[in-house]
Amino acid sequence: MRRTVFNEDHEAFRETIRAFIEAEVAPVYDEWFAAGQAPRDFYYKLGELGIFGINVPEEFGGAGLDTHKFEAVLYEETSRAGVNFGGSGVHVLLALPYIKMLATDEQKKRYLPKFVSGEEMWALAMTEPGTGSDVAGMKTTAKLSEDGTHYVLNGSKTFITGGVHADRVIVCARTSAPTAEDRRHGISLFAVDTKSEGYSIGRKLDKLGLRTSDTAELAFVDVKVPVEDLLGEENKGFYYLGHNLASERWGIAFGAYAQAKAAVRFAQQYVTDRTVFGKPVAHFQNTKFELAACQAEVDAAEAVADRALEALDAGELTPAEAASAKLFCTEVAHRVIDRCLQLHGGYGYMNEYPIARLYADNRVNRIYGGTSEIMKSIIAKSMGL
């Protein structure tokens, strides 16, 4: 079936990204993998390429577009090449919507030009040790100083993607205690400068997958955050977080679909080249049937991911629809990538093969952005159950 989601501009962008990956990423990706992160100067290259400014208004150095379709092309091309652009996805998909939605004109003038160039990389610090998906259970506090010039931030965060290289982090903290009626009340968002005294990076976490995307623990001990770096209004943070969850979950869904599509490509290439018992593995009926079944699942996931993309761009993607897309696409990717690894035999277990790295990278899709169980709960609630 012919896809209608992309136009000539998106396909031109695809060619640019594919050439960029071949020239700048593929030759050094093994070094990034061994180091456990992409180098800091790589993000300047992405800034020069214009990737960070696509959805940023022109007055701040961006392209002034309002679409997620270029991000979708990025998902497909990085997955196709078996690479990852480090913490850049969080910078654009997670942090930017909060800046655009909540920042004042003065804040945008301070934040966005450096955001576009890659001079300031951003991350989002929501999860805390022991709370997981229970955002309302956070313990990190931000107390307004007596003279009203700054907040004093204390607490810790974990699983913060991009946390090692981040120059600013959107930190979720309690400015008021929860009420008896609403335990989600009292959370506020702050654009915290990572050079602030009392701000520290703990461990760079040793993850199963996404090895080139740095993930860290963060700690705050009496960090002074100027009142000028409060994003939005006090105590409305939980509402703001919920507002952007649909786009985050779409991103995970689309990324998972793209990984599944790449897995079929890797497996088809491998079984065509690999010979056993005197003939290519692709000639065996089981191989054909397995790949055919995987392709059918990828086709279905592509349709779901594309439909969610169109709804997101139109401002019509509901929380339940985003949850459904995430649940479906991540479960499809789990099944497809596992079957494609099986077709590689023992070599599928070796990190030198992209299918092995893809298998590890994919596993977190059913956990972050809300677990599959949370997605089912959201969908069930929308059904009136």
UniProtKB/TrEMBL annotation:
Residue intervals of the Acyl-CoA dehydrogenase/oxidase N-terminal domain: 7-119
Keyword match Oxidoreductase: yes
Cofactor: FAD
Top-level lineage group: Bacteria
Pfam families: Acyl-CoA_dh_1 (PF00441), Acyl-CoA_dh_M (PF02770), Acyl-CoA_dh_N (PF02771)
Leader sequence segment: none
Acyl-CoA dehydrogenase/oxidase C-terminal domain residues: 235-383
Record-annotated Acyl-CoA oxidase/dehydrogenase middle domain positions: 123-223
UniProt cross-references to InterPro entries, sorted A to Z: Acyl-CoA_DH_CS, Acyl-CoA_Oxase/DH_mid-dom, Acyl-CoA_Oxase/DH_mid-dom_sf, AcylCo_DH-like_C, AcylCo_DH/oxidase_C, AcylCoA_DH/ox_N, AcylCoA_DH/ox_N_sf, AcylCoA_DH/oxidase_NM_dom_sf
Keywords of the record: FAD, Flavoprotein, Oxidoreductase
Keyword Flavoprotein assigned: yes
Transmembrane regions listed in the UniProt entry: none
UniProt record similarity statement: Belongs to the acyl-CoA dehydrogenase family.
Protein's name according to its UniProt entry: Acyl-CoA dehydrogenase family protein
Organism field: Streptomyces narbonensis
Lineage, opening ranks: Bacteria, Bacillati, Actinomycetota, Actinomycetes, Kitasatosporales
